[in-house]
Amino acid sequence: MYLDRNNVSSIMLFFIKKKNKLTHLHKNVCENNNKNIYIFHSLFGCGVLFIFFYILFYFILFCFILFYFILFYFILYFVKLSQQDLENFALFESVLKPVNDPKQKPEQYISSIESSGMPKKEVVMNKFRSSTTYEYVIENSPPPKIFVNNESKNENNNNNDNSNNNNKNNNNNYSTNTKPRSKSCPPAKELPCNNCKRMSPIDLLEPCERCGNGCYCSEECQY
User: Which residue ranges have biased composition labelled Low complexity (predicted)?
Assistant: First the structure.
């Protein structure tokens, strides 16, 4: 094939046009890539800022909650102390409360007192159960009477000279009679102390008699 000047020039123009098209295409691709990179960086920066402020917000919220929780705990602690003082004061006030006039509430007054002048066992025990801080609480009732068995004292005084050993055994097996025995309690000699229920003493209010080691008979005193 014979190449003249026109053919060479036409071939060169063809390649130059191709080159221009390729350079223009490459330029467009680079510009698009730069735009994509800029958009990506912008979105990434916004995401990082969003996460940072999100964590910062919840951290500040957590600090506020912790602060108010500690403050509430201290306030509750001091309020609880003051409430305990008020409850104690109210309990003492109920103990020292004067007896109501029988003319105002005769049924309530008569129903809580036995004929002997002592408060009934149910009334006393219910008030003892409801009281956890103090040993017993008596409201609207006279103080219980103390009964002393003089016969047992005289017998012990008369028998001191003759039988000292028997008196020691009796002192170990019997307690001092400060009140009449309950009808449902067995006799003192039938109270083995290993079958008694050990309790905190409420001496003048307990209807059962104690054994020698400080137990009470287990028939009535389990509450």
Answer: 149-173
